[in-house]
Amino acid sequence: MDVSEEFLKDLIKPRSAIFLEMEQYAKENHVPIMQLMGMDSLLHLLSLQKPKSILELGTAIGYSSMRMASKLESASIVTIERDVDKATLAKQYIERANLQNRIEVIIGDALEVEADQFGQKKFDAIFIDAAKGQYKKFFEKYAPFLHDGGVIYCDNLLLNGLSELPMNEVPRRKRTMVRNQHQFTEWLMSHEDYDTAFLPVGDGMLVSIKR
Ligand code: SAM
């Protein structure tokens, strides 16, 4: 039986028109939204976990936050994006899908926004999908806002194949990013407060359950 990625992609449940439109927009405008198989796996894990509140770092045009909100009908999502144009487009798509009461877009650099605004609020799930190479900083800043038993999902650990290359074959300007992602993976997989698995789906995902 052929179980190639192309074959599996055809088996993923059909998406609504707005998601197909966003996928097309992302393709034409080089916006790196989540890969289909990675997205499908994340939604599947989330539907097992059933979080009521999700924090996402890296909104882009709102694709993953809208897909999470559509799949998890009782979840509310806060998502942070530093690129004003992308965040503005995300807000437009979110309103078109009538999800503005469940998805809040915060415009700003996730490493700079005041986390105090969350007050005592804690999230059931945190999804990190922002600047590659900075994941440890994101993790350390936002992990205190995760409930015990909550889950942190981190995407892009395979770096579109770069992470599997010997370092001398990685373009020089990308080496620090690759090293940082390697170190982050090592650090998180041996972190005693989290039970972490690496899932080689999509662009590679770390799933960490807070003990
Ligand atoms: N999660 C989105 C999806 O699948 O639809 C894709 C996010 S894209 C991979 C990464 C986004 O993170 C970019 O839009 C980028 O501008 C944003 N980003 C990168 N570093 C950030 C930071 N420090 N704070 C906020 N946003 C950031």
Polypeptide structure, described:
With about 210 residues, the protein is of the alpha/beta class. Helix content is about 35%, strand content about 20%. The protein has a domain at about 5-150: Rossmann fold, CATH 3.40.50.150. It has helices at about 5-10, 15-30, 35-50, 65-70, 85-95, 135-140, 175-190; strands spanning about 55, 75-80, 105, 125-130, 145-155, 195-200, 205-210. Strand 1 (about 55), helix 4 and strand 2 form a beta-alpha-beta unit. Helix 3 packs parallel to helix 4. It starts with a helix and ends with a strand. Bound molecules: S-adenosylmethionine (SAM). The site of S-adenosylmethionine (SAM) has 18 residues, from helix 4 and strand 2.
Descriptive labels:
211 residues; Rossmann fold; 7 helices; 7 strands; binds S-adenosylmethionine
Describe, in short, the structure shown.
By secondary structure, the chain is of the alpha/beta class. The protein contains 7 helices and 7 strands. It has helices at 5-11, 17-28, 36-49, 63-71, 84-96, 135-142, 175-189; strands at 53-57, 76-81, 103-107, 123-128, 146-154, 194-199, 205-210.
Secondary structure layout:
Elements: H1 5-11, H2 17-28, H3 36-49, E1 53-57, H4 63-71, E2 76-81, H5 84-96, E3 103-107, E4 123-128, H6 135-142, E5 146-154, H7 175-189, E6 194-199, E7 205-210
Parallel strand pairs: 1-2, 1-4, 2-3, 4-5
Antiparallel strand pairs: 5-7, 6-7
Helix pairs in contact: 3-4
This protein binds S-adenosylmethionine.
S-adenosylmethionine (SAM) binds next to helix 4 and strand 2.
